[in-house]
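Figure 6 in text form: structure in, sequence out.
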């Protein structure tokens, strides 16, 4: 069955890349990839390639922005000009500012910022290659980099999207599904409590579909969390 754009995204219950509806793309993670950062991580997730670097906690300048009760947390998301098919104009735009804002807010839920008065914790997420779901990959890489930096946190943040493609609820949309599917629902959670810290939606879903997609995305994020934990252990040489 083709969708309204004339593109067949599902055939015999399988997706364009052969995945089942509830299957994640292949994910690999590595910590400690940047020499000058306090902590860093590199995540390959399907065709997405994302690096995250954490700087700090360090004293916040200018001084008038300092908060004597807690550190400022800033997550900056950037899509490299060469990361997408049509070259992206360098520098921030509305989309990257939005993703930076929601990512910062998600991470503020876990970072124990009160331990670092007058400081700033800066997290840079650089998307080197994009293939849909980059805000989820970026957040996953960012929290891994924070753990690598030894920043005290309540837990990690793990993220994953679900959505609707040719009438079916599916996990972890790739580019073609994101472009030509009916809906995309990126979700980030604090895994230990299954508490949602980011929830956005593109397109339309019925109430039932929304609830099914949300549950699927949370379960996807729980699988991502397991891979994060392995990467932290490997980064520490299994010493944790
Ligand atoms: N994209 C692009 N050019 C842009 C922004 C996005 O080609 O300027 C692509 C990129 O592959 C991205 C996808 O569109 O991953 C979906 O973007 P969206 O805004 O839905 O965010 P994401 O799914 O990456 O979190």
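Output sequence:
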């Amino acid at each position: 069955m083709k969708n309204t754009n004339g593109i067949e995204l599902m055939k015999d219950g399988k997706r364009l890349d052969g995945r089942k509806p509830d299957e994640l793309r292949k994910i690999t993670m590595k910590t400690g990839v940047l020499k000058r950062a306090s902590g860093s991580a590199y995540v390959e997730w399907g065709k997405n390639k994302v690096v995250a670097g954490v700087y700090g906690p360090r004293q916040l300048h200018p001084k008038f922005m300092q908060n004597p009760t807690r550190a400022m947390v800033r997550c900056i998301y950037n899509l490299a000009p060469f990361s997408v098919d049509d070259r992206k104009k360098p520098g921030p735009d509305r989309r990257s500012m939005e993703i930076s804002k929601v990512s910062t807010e998600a991470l503020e839920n876990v970072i124990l910022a009160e331990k670092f008065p007058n400081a700033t914790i800066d997290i840079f997420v650089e998307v080197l290659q994009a293939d849909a779901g980059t805000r989820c990959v970026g957040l996953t890489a960012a929290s891994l980099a924070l753990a690598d930096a030894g920043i005290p946190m309540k837990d990690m943040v793990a993220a994953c999207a679900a959505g609707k493609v040719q009438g079916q609820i599916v996990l972890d949309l790739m580019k073609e599904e994101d472009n030509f599917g009916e809906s995309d629902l990126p979700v980030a959670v604090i895994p230990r409590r299954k508490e949602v810290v980011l929830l956005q939606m593109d397109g339309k879903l019925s109430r039932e579909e929304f609830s099914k997609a949300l549950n699927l995305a949370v379960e996807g994020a729980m699988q991502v969390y397991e891979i994060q934990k392995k990467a932290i252990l490997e980064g520490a040489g299994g010493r944790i």
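Caption detail: Residues 79, 84-85, 88, 95, 130-135, 175, 178, 184, 186 surround uridine-5'-diphosphate (CB under 6 Å).
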